Amino acid sequence: MALWDTLKKHAGAQFLEVIDWVDDSKNTLVYRYPTFNQAITDASKLVVREGQAGVFVAEGKLSDVFPPGTHALDTRNPPIGRFFQSIVYKLEEPYKGDVYFVSTRQFTDNGWGTSTPIMLRDAEFGPVRIRAHGVFSFRITDPAMFLRQLVGTDGLFTTDEITGQLKKKLVGSLAQVIGRSRIPVLDLASSYQDLGDQLRDHLNPLLQESYGITLTDFTVQSVSLPEEVEKALDARSKMGILGNLDAYSQLKAADAIEVAARNPGLGGVGASVGVGLGLGQQIGQQLGRGVGQFDPQTGLAGGGSAPPALPGGPPQLHYSGPSGQDRLSIPEIVARITADRGSSHLVWMPGWPQWKSWREVADVAAQVPPAPDGGPTWHYNGPGGQVVLGLDALVDKIRGAPGEAHHVWRSGWAGWRKAEDVEEIAAALRTGAPPPPP
Length: 438
Prior knowledge:
Elements (H helix, E strand, L loop, with lengths): L1 H8 L5 E5 L8 E6 L5 E10 L3 E7 L2 E6 L2 E4 L5 H9 L10 E7 L3 E7 L4 E5 L3 E15 L2 H9 L4 E3 L1 H22 L10 H20 L1 E12 L2 H16 L2 H18 L6 H18 L7 E2 L3 E2 L15 E6 L2 E6 H10 L6 E3 L7 E2 L4 H4 L11 E6 L2 E6 H10 L6 E3 L7 E2 L4 H8 L8
Parallel strand pairs: 1-3
Antiparallel strand pairs: 2-7, 2-11, 3-6, 4-5, 4-7, 8-10, 9-10, 10-12, 13-14, 15-16, 15-17, 17-18, 19-20, 19-21, 21-22
Helix pairs in contact: 4-5, 7-8
């Protein structure tokens, strides 16, 4: 007992009978028991509760780790004896032994989230940016490693000091796990659990080796897309729900008629009904549906992709000219061209990649009569000087000197133009030109 007699004589020494710790904070990972200027008697006891581990550090070196239970601090106990022997300086210097309590329970409900979007390559949408958030849980499984790598001499180590680092590692690994899984963005919601399990299995070896921590749970609560992409998806979903847009527009028009019938005295209702009906008819025409009996699923019965042509009727083409756009038969188009030869007349029919000049359509050009002597003329400036020419003579001039500059001018123009930029001349040049090489 010589050691304890000397301790008792040491000025200011305080004798500890029971060393234990009860955590009320719910976020403390490591707590250093206050032993400054204190002594531990041979009859003292160390009480380690469930969810804790006791760690002795002697002269700055970790000595032993004690599991849950009551441990007698007896110098005849080899670990305790080594602990006291390592701190004996004939009591001429301050006491240098420390007792740490490490919480080994689970720390749950720690939120995580992506501070910046994660770039992914999706099979359906291509490159997309996503954000994700959720919660995770962890516990200390190697108190000695945790104390050496993270705590050091910190007397009170809380979750706030480690969760920031854990979140960075979690988010960084999440991008790798999602990218490697190649799960489509729209299917991620059904794979949250699998993603969490994969990330936990991926990170645990690293966390255990580096910090003595085990990730016990990782939950993905949501994955979101940028706002503009979400709006586009909403619009796409809305169109899928509406289905037949023609039937929807006609149904809304029918609702307007019913409202008007119930309220005959309201002013302006008739105009609203007319607008609704006109909109429904316009949308129906644009979708190429025919006229028939309304059906809430299919719209107007008897409507195909386009109304069939009348038996024996002339074919119709889409026409664009000075009077605007319309659907006309070939004789009607020929009449408009003949009435205004100086303007641009374009035609189109389904299957063509773009509009064509009437001169490029053989069925139309064959029915347009030759221009009279008073046909359109231009002031021409090119090889040979300046002269007034009709269309055919102008085309011959340009084809005769393809490498030269050819300019034309007509009354009302602000200045000269390249002949090839004038639609009617360009169309005439294309007529009869050889096809491109294969």
